[in-house]
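User: Batch of two.

Assistant: Item 1 of 2:
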Amino acid sequence: MAAKVPRDRIIESAAALLAEGGRDAVSTRAVCAAAGVQTPTIYRLFGDMRGLLDAVASHGFTAYLAQKSAIQDSDDPVADLRAGWDLHVGFGLAQPSLYTLIFGDARPGQEPAAALKAAELLAYRVKRIAQAGRLRVSEERAAQFVHATGKGVTLTLIATPPEQRDLGLSSMARESVLAAVTSESPPDAAGGLTNAAVSLRASLDDAAALSLAERNLLDEWLLRISKQ
């Protein structure tokens, strides 16, 4: 079996230190000792410790994303989003140090690659709800609300001693969010203008009969309606 390249050894060593001792355990000295490399190697490969931590986050998040992506689309996109929420919270409780590394250190305009991938998957789940005519608000607002609430709940549970955690908090928050942004069924002919606008906007890419400029203009109008 071929020996692992230094980059892989460094990332795996840092990930192990993070899992065992939290963020404070991932020092340059500790990583170098565990990976069998010199300090300049870390800076040559990752730029700085922030770069290494971002690489560790992406590495550790890969398995989670594979698991989350493996959720097969069902006939009920709201149920799929519910399953994704539970998986997200479960990941945070199973790997608190990694979760906090990814979601607990907000840097405006500098989201870790792992967080961006998770956002893309969430956006996909929300778009499916919109296409089904079951989204009450714009896709952007729904995704932000789900993300912000899910992250807040998960970080709160992580900060609570295991024996004191109320896991019902997650279920309560999840159902409250879903009730706020989704509906039980598509709007009927008598109403549901906002839902209809959101649904049509989610499918604009399929409107081949319109030019790009026309789709952009219609997108702007529909977004305005969906925010009313």
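Item 2 of 2:
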Amino acid sequence: MATGSFRVLLRAEIKPGMAEDFERTWLDVGTGVTGHPANLGQWLMRSDEDEHVYYILSEWVDEPSFREFEQSDQHLEHRTRLHPYRSGGAMWTMTVVHALDKPRAVTG
């Protein structure tokens, strides 16, 4: 995790009965995000409190690179394919200011 990297957190509310299709489609279109040179990875997580709520976290080298991707045809296609499964959601952006990596175990 790079200090100064830019994170995007999406909250996606998925229509009842569509979670499996949403997950499959997210995996299908995911390379459209992770294939971008400025993307450092992304993660799909399901809420433990509400089975219809998912969170998508993506990491970018910086905000301008994310904003460039956000305006691209690639991102529009990504959103278009996922939109039928969603009933709502929200987006937050943030910059990593400090990172504490877990120390690696020393083997002897």
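DSSP finds four helices and four strands in the chain.
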